[in-house]
Amino acid sequence: MLIKRLLIMLFVGAILLSACQTATPVPPTATVPPAPTSAAPVAEMIAVFELVAEDGSVTEFTLEDLMELPVTSGQAGIKSSTGKITAPETWSGVALKDLVAVLPGFDETMGVSVEADDGYAITFSYDQIMNGTFIQYDPGTGDELKSPVPLTAILAYELNDELLDANQSGNLRLAIVSDEPKQVTDGHWSVKFVTKVVVKSLGEEWFLQMDGAISETMDRATFESGASPNCHTASWTDDKAQEWRGIPLWLMVGRVDDEIIHEGPAYNDQLAEMGYTVDIISSDGYTVSIDSSRMTRNDNIIVAHLVNGNPLPEKYFPLRLVGSDLEKSEMAGMITKIVVHVEGMTAPAIEADLAIGGMVKSSLAFTEADLRSMDVVHITAEHPKKGSQEYEGVYLNALLEMAGIDTGATKLVLTASDEYSAEVPLADVSACADCLVAFTEEAGVLNLVMPGMATSAWIKDIVKIDVQGEAAVEIPADADLVINGLVATPMGFKEEDLRALEVVKITAEHPKKGPLDYEGVRLNTLLELVKLDPSAVKLVLTASDGFTAEIFVAEATACADCLVAFTEEAGVFNLAMPGLPSNTWMKDITKIEIQ
Amino acid sequence: MATIPPATEISGKVPLVVFAAGSLIIPFDHLEQAFEARYPNIDVRPEYHGSIQVIRHATELHDSIDVIASADASLIPMLMYGSQVPETGKAYADWYIRFASNRLALAYTDQSKYAAEIDASNWYRVLSQQDVRTGIADPRFDPSGYRALMAFALANNYYRQPTIFFDMFTGRFRRSIGIFQDDDLTTITVPEIVEPVANTGLVMRGASIQLIALLQSGELDYAFEYESVIQQHGLNLFSLPEELNLGSPDVDYSKVLVRLDFQRFHSVEPEFPGERIGYGITIPSNAPHPEEAELFIAFLLSEEGRALMQADHHPLFEQALADNHANLPASLQGLCAPAETP
After folding, report:
1. Which of A116, A168, A559 sits opposite B60 (nearest CB)?
2. ipTM
3. Bigger pLDDT: A386 or B36?
4. What is the per-residue pLDDT across A423-462, written as a single tens digit (0 to 9) for each?
5. What is the DSSP string of B308-325?
6. Which residue, A152, A341, B65, B339, has fewest beta-carbon neighbours within 10 Å?
7. Which residues contact B166 (CB under 8 A, 6 or more apart)?
8. CB atoms < 10 A from the CB of A255, how many?
9. Min CA distance, A154 vs chain B (Å)?
10. From the centroid of its chain, how far is CA A415?
11. DSSP character for A195?
């Protein structure tokens, strides 16, 4: 009960802070009859509704409890899938966005499942809950509305100021309301007999148990991070042209084969040379054993979590061992456990010969053996003093790519074993196809080969490469519009800056006002200027009053006519976003953060 | 659980509540007129929805319904055989009659982009163009939606181009629809939330019948519809190859399966195997007017009913087939043959 009261207090706080209530919060009009004084339970005091948080915690509500919460009231009607219209009426209840806002961490990766008492459920997206994104129809004609109105999904307990008829639709029903009776929405959203609202992540969680010299329980997020393009991803395409993607088994094993998990030389080659087996175990007990000699540094034996970019089908979910160096019988699915049999084995401590750190996704360290197991090349390069020389080693850019350079990095600080150091621009290194970490005659001693660069960059006995950035790009404090986040060049714009770019005039269909003329700069022009990071997913748009909205990068870049439009007021810009939800047509946009 | 009260009699007529798939609107309206002329004491009250919704009105919203007609006959055993009427404990249904088929096709107009160029060799490439607006029904609510996904999966094999499904759908949904090809089965996985990404050319509505208006107003170039519906609305019809249209009696469509990747119903996590489109009809065990319902189904299967359906481009099977034939009302047993046990 205490938790529930706390939630109710939080609701009140949340509604007070809410600046964007689309339908009108009003005091409740219907009242629950007072409970009799006898000890016998009455219907109103029985829980009618459960709110289930992502962590599984459950809060029960009676009808009275719900009616204590801030009320959202508005007009809702429905259109059946074959066109039958039920005209708008007045519904009152609790907005779903208010209900979920007080639970921690509700974001775009989650959904809200609204469940009826018989188990029927429909899941609403983040966009539907927070932005009211539903197809709307004219209640008179049934035609789709070209200028949609703001909508709010509510858990309704009143219809036309009367409590719902529990026999007709249960105590609670989903309704999608607006201020005016000018819209109806698809009937399949209007779940009757609602008894439960479940906030949940839309990605199914799973865990992988790994046992070796140490144990680790890896969750889905950690695995996905490790399998990201800038980390340790590997892929294999099967005979049906399906691409399986995941992490090479040897790198997974490297997390538990000794006590070094990730920083430093995680995979213990010497231990592997001594020989051990790795058991890959499915949830049904099926076990595949792989020798370390077969697995070591072999990127063709992969623990895959995706096929064709999607989670694995049920028969293999969550992980499957795949790759060109496996027999089909070895491609175990439903992997839940990996056991590395290094019991009683000890290997000499390993000291890294070269470390890469700083502004990288993953700090890495390599022994010479590590490097020799990679793609080793032989080149001839022109030394500034010695002339043409032969070198053997690994491309520097390949190592930097493994580490994953962070956005904003601009230079490398190269340090030798005697602590001599030099700086080189990252751009120069990126452009240097033949820059090499070269082996020498002395084991464990590596030299940098930097064709085209000054002698100072040809570091002998290189031990450390630190990736660094310049001081953050300074954005003028008086910029009218800032674009930052996952971009190569964060930028601030005054109106004169924008007017110096290509200014266009367009006519766009405003969701509420119809066709209007706009003048401004294409959003895509600005996004090209700041250079989006390849990992960017969405744009978070913020107005001067703090209102925010989000769109996917794909939506923005696909919208040729989306415009940062000038207004009559200098330094004030509006967004014109044809084809996108009305909440993205933002007035006085001041910031676009790329995430 | 209380039930919605049965429809009330007006002027001494028996109200017969018929819930049917949206693709049956036009032929069943004509059937209603002829049936009421034959039986003037019966007032047919039709209501049309996506087929999943049709059945849900009986089994989960507990509406009083006399006849149920679904565009996917398999939904009846899946959703009605295993759930019980609260008052009686009996299954909502224990038989159905498979009475007609259909073919999945593309509807378009003369104004549709590439209308002059589209043909059997390029239709999937046309639809995957970013400047072409294609409509499909939401696969969570309407069989036409998951059947459109099946057509693309079948196209992968038919045209021996494994990327046809990817080319059409990748990047067009906020949460992607999965496809996985095993040795002998292609499984399509529909996520819990299906939201098209704006401005990518793909438009989705809850039911395929809703796409007709968008096509007629020029907001769509192409829409996946049933052939009968396209012809009833006078739209241009592009026929898919028999191997893909899910309507041929001579093609094995079973190498594809659509899974809804979530618990949509209380006890069923739906899987829809690829098979020839079959419309199913039954009388719920709690129908208020079962005898009149029998008359309606018998009329549908009569020569007059057949002629009406034929005239609306939706011919019945030569021989209607009944699942659990022995459970049929006696008056209907002679009108159909037992279905083969799968």
Report:
1. A116
2. 0.74
3. B36
4. 998 888 988 999 999 999 998 899 999 999 988 899 999 9
5. HHHHTT-PEEEEEEEETG
6. A341
7. A308, B179
8. 22
9. 19
10. 36
11. E
